[in-house]
Amino acid sequence: MLTACEDPTPAPRLPSEDSVVGDITYRTADGFQIVATFTPPGDALPPWPVVVLIHQFHGSRSQWSEITTDLVAAGFAVLAPDARAHGQSIGRWNASGDLEIMVDRAGTLGYWVGDVEAACNWLDLRSDIDSKRLHVGGASAGANASWVATGAQLPVRRAVAVSPRFDTGGLLLGDEIHDFRPSGVLFQTNKSEALQAQALFGRTEEPRHIEVYESSGHGIDLLQDGRARRDFVAWFADGR
Length: 240
Description:
By secondary structure, this protein is α/β, with parallel strands linked by helices. It has five helices and ten strands.
């Protein structure tokens, strides 16, 4: 028990956003509780450039483990979230303040750019991130989300779109965004899907580039090609 002249024991200090690494959570504007992994570069001094990695439909953030290693080695911080209704991002706070479990992925694609925005907002809270060097990379549906993000008035400098699609039923094509002008995108594709990427390439402003690989892989599988992996990292490195 304290006497009148004793000072109370100081409350423990809460960690700052800058001290949070590994698995973290943040919320989208429409209430999804996103689970993500934040990995800082080992020896590089902050503020760091950062890459947000958006996985493919029915995938999870674990798909990016190899690319994360490459990006960190190149001096980038990496934020890899599970998209809404995927992986561990299955909780959504409703208007009543209750947490609902949402595992139905049908119809979520139209909101994936909101997931990118939530990632940008969380990163903006960190003083160890260079907000002028924020990039996004994605595979398949995540590729479309990354491409759209560059034209959606988000602070995205460059993007890599691995195996993007044009035949998405109108989703993740930026049609609902006013003054949609995507730019700064590297498109990576195999030969059989090249026309899909070329359709989006034609709607993209400079700087832009399209690379067609001999590999038959789609999305994350395409990045098993060594040249594709090197190009993925180099596009961001050249833009910083």
